[in-house]
Each structure stands twice: as C-alpha cells, then as structure tokens.
Amino acid sequence: MFxxxxxxxxxxxxxxxxxxxxxxxxxxxxxxxxIGLFKPDYIDENRARYYDVLRYDLLGSILQxxxxxxxxxxxxxxxxxxxxxxxxxxxxxxxxxFDEKLKQLVALKRTLEKKLTLIEQFLDKDAIPKGAYxxxxxxxxxxxxxxxxxxxxxxxENTVFLESLLNExxxxxxxxxxxxxxxxxxxxxxxxxxxxVPFIFVNSFKKAPKKxxxxxPEGEYVCAIYNDYYLHLEKNSxxxxxxxxxxxxxxxxxxxLACDMIDVTVTDRFSEMIVELQAPxxxx
Length: 284
Known about the structure:
By secondary structure, this protein is α+β, with helices and mostly antiparallel strands. The protein has nine helices and twelve strands. The chain has two domains: 2-82, Orthogonal Bundle (Multidrug-efflux Transporter Regulator, Chain: A, Domain 2); 118-283, Regulatory factor, effector binding domain (Multidrug-efflux Transporter 1 Regulator Bmrr, Chain A, Alpha-Beta Barrel), CATH 3.20.80. Strand 2 and strand 3 form a beta hairpin.
C-alpha cells in the first residue's frame, strides 16, 4: 500500500515502462544508473527501479545527445553545472564535428560515384576499345617512390608504403588510382613483362613529402586497353601504341603509364582486369 501511494504521488513508472516508451533497453537505463548519468527516483525492496515521469524529457535529451555523437562522458559534462553559455559552446563544438564528418561523407560519395562511372564503362566487353587511340588528359598528380621494381612482391610492398603517405578518403577504391611508369626503352617495348615504377594518383599532395610528389603534365596520350592483369605489359600491347604513333605522325615523349582501370578492388578474375597504357606524345 505504501509503495503504491509513493508511486502515485511521484507519478512513478517502472524501468520496463520507461524503456518501452523511449524504445531503449532496460540495460541502457541500468547502465546510466551505474555511471550516475540518470538514476532512478525510487528503488523498492526487490531492487526494482522506478522513475518520475516528469524526468522523461531529461532522459529524452540525454538520448538525443548520444544520437548526435556525444560520448557518455561528454553528456555527463554537459549536465554538470549546465548553463546557456556552456551549452552553447559544447553544441557549437559538436556542430563543428558534424561539419567535418559531412565533408568526409561527401568525399566518400564522390569517390564511390567516380568508381561506379569507371566500372560502368567496362561492363559491356564489346564496348571496350580495340587497339590504340588518342586521348587528352589534364594535369595529374601522383605519389611515387621512384623505384624501378621487377617483381609483384616488390610492387605490393611499395604500394603499401605509398598508401601510408596519403591523406585521402578510401584511396584504393578511387577511380583508376594505381599504376606504374614503364621506362621508355627498346627492351621494355619488346618484353612480355618489364620493370616499372609504381605510383598512386592523388587529388592533392597534402602530407606527402615533396620527394615522393610527381606531376604528370597535361597533354595528348596514345592509349591502349588490354585485359588480363598479368599480361598488360606484353610486347604486343606496346607494339600497337608504337604502330599508332608511326601511322599518325606522333613520337613518344616520356615514360608510358600503365593505369589499373579494373583491378583487385573490383574483381578476382584476371580476365576481367583491365589496364590502360598511356604514352605521352607530340606531333613529329
């Protein structure tokens, strides 16, 4: 009788009812009790917790602050000696965090959209260009160690190192992010698989040390696309670029770029992997 009257006077509800009203678990309320964030107004002889319904709004605001990303410690700090100036500053800081997160999300979405656009170009195998063709590229930025590598193991290790230099969102999921410079030489033009200098395309250099930065100049490039990841440097691929240059009055002015278009981030099938060779050229 006493417990019932006590509950009626204070408008108490059980922990189960309160949890149900706010669509949370009773364990969440018990946790908030243990850490002193939101304690019950009455605990009976059976250790059952009861809460004053007039504090419903307080719990609701705690839950909303948690949804906004505040840690439990931050929420506790928010309610300690709460005043308008303190609340304003904490909410302003939280808003700044949201701005940064939104920038990251926008960058991720932009990266994903570029990747989708790239993949869509190669969904129809019949639409993939055959032979060599001329293409114009704007100035591009890459990070590279400048090391001429001969094995796939060396390449993998070097790529991990280059990734560590980047300050970009999902760098390896970006569109055509990875590749290698093929030194222009008679030997490389007539080999099935020659040495090359790995690089990763970047939007900006940011934290990358200057010695690893390289600008690929704007200009015309004679390109060729070939399937099969491990055969993209075969001599026939190079020969088609050389033949195009000879037939159309171009000369190659620098190292050839081998750019991974469809790679292991998209498929495990070698037959689906696509590399575009890009040879910088000028008219003779």
